[in-house]
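Researcher: We're reviewing a set of sequences before deciding which ones to prioritize for further study. For each one, I'd like a predicted 3D structure that I can look through quickly. This is Ionotropic glutamate receptor C-terminal domain-containing protein. If possible, include the structure in token form so it fits the rest of the review sheet.
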Amino acid sequence: MGSAHFAAILLCVCIIAGGAIADSQNGTNGVSRPAEVRIGALFTFDSVIGRAAKPAIELAVADVNADPTVLPGTKLSLLMQDTNCSGFVGTIEALQLLAKDVIAVLGPQSSAIAHIISHAANKLQVPLISFAASDPTLSSLEYPYFVRATQSDYYQMSAVASIISQYQWREVIAIYVDDDYGRGGITALGDALAKKMSKIAYKAKLPPGAGRTAIQDMLMQVNEMESRVYVVHVNPDSGMTVFSAAKSLGMMSSGYVWIATDWLSAVIDSSGHVASDATENTQGVIMLHQHVADSGIQQSLLPKLNSLTRKGNRSSFSSYTAHAYDSVWLVAHAVEQFLSAGNAVSFSANQNLQAIKGSSLQLDSLRVLNNGDKLLEKVLQANFTGVSGQVQFTLDRNLIHPAYDILNIGGTGFRTIGYWSNFSGLSVAAPENLHSVPLNSTTNDIQLHSVIWPGQTAEKPRGWVFPYHGKLLRIGVPLRTSYNEFVMQDDGPDGVKGFSVDVFKSAISLLPYPVGCTFVLFGDGLKNPSYSDLVQKVSENYFDAAIGDISIVTNRTRLVDFTQPYTESGLIIVAPARETESNAWAFLKPFTFQMWCVLGLLFLFVGTVVWILEHRTNTEFRGTPRQQIMTVCWCLAFQPCFSHTERTLLAHLADLCSLCGSLLCSLLTQATRQA
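Model: Here's the predicted structure for Ionotropic glutamate receptor C-terminal domain-containing protein, in token form for your review sheet.
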């Protein structure tokens, strides 16, 4: 019995030990790790972005397989499909890639293909990790399995709007390719400019793959418009034609402003030869570049990339290189956590596709990734430091800390004039140095470094000119039925006249350039129009401006801007001025003739009273009648001037009479006014 019990116990220990060893090999929950997991890559191999991404993806897969801490015992296999710059071919290639049971797809490169394939990815529960598709609309809740491993154009257009606002330009012309990538970016630009009180004056769209002739026709059209600020948002593979055509038309000279999104920096980064041609045709252009901070990881990656080059073509490092490399590691970390959580890599048939009968497309080969939502969750929970910086996602599936370098092309290269980030806005300090600094710190200076503009000038371009066939300004004028002195209808060339019209003409005559305008009457002429409605018409751009006796009130200031008042506030009377001739008797005009007669009679009455009282006791009031009359007049006229001398009864009586006379004059004056 002792030996039997010992053997049974030993057998149990061996079974438990064997189970433990099996668990350590299979992973948690007893689910064995697969020997191989497949990921796909979908992009155009022979393109500016593709040439930068392909060696980075291949190198990243090799580094993952060589790292024993990531996916131990599991090989990461890469399947790449070439979309050939075609939306149709790219869609077919994507479906073929999904049919090969890949657990994730790196790409697609094109935003147009991403919109289509995202619907398939939603049903098959396969995450799409794109290192190049920047259309902001891809962050919609409609595409939950699309994860952007690069910066969204939503942030890039915010950076462009900040630059335009920095130089106080109010209107721009957007040149873009008419596809999902171009339309999404320009829509985001319009929204960003609206926040800065600016706008897109005209959208010049180009068909995908437009030839030089179509581009020249478009440029000649926009060259006749008012704005001279151009924002170019096109594909990197054909975008240089825009600048070469603009240079041939003389549009790269002084007075023009060109702002290019990050497609231009991708072209310049692609190779030395292309960069030489690019900088020659883009002198003075401001371009954006996705910010990638220098790090040891980046420096160690460059020699490995150079070793993968073919036929002596040196591979340059760009932001797309960094994002493509980090995308592979993002998938590797997510799959490692997915397997460590006890999930198995398995696929099942899609019931909707199985229900399709009689199709020769073999759609039943598209299978659903079981627990694909859990793999997506692990992808979105990523948090590691890659070549491009911190790889971590926001709630809308975009990378945190979006930032751009602002570059100015000049000579044989370019220089950094500043940075933009969603944390600090424009700054001359690198974004990574500002995350730990308060926003009100002096370290964050929004003033960019000096720019060499097209035409080799350092003076900021005005940003607009008078168009060859531009429309005249529409000036709204209220058609009043009263107080026509301010504005009124006239038979002259302008159709209106008045004080407000004269002030407006005098103001625009002081401008250093001519301003064409036409006056448009507002109202039916039967009653005074509503000034609030007139202001509303200005805010709706029906009128470019309005003139007249328009009161500045709070509600109106919320809609439009007012000039400084050119008339004083309060109750005033506007009366015609009459010129009168002055003469020696002008002092008589303050009083009427009747008033002067009353004053004369009063003077004689007081004089008579004084003479009667003083004649008996005062010798100075005696003599000839002429002397007595002169004495009385002298006493009445100059008695106030000698109030400090001897005061007699006459003096006191004279003062009393003067007071009575003043009161009488006041009463008579009031009576005259009432009459």
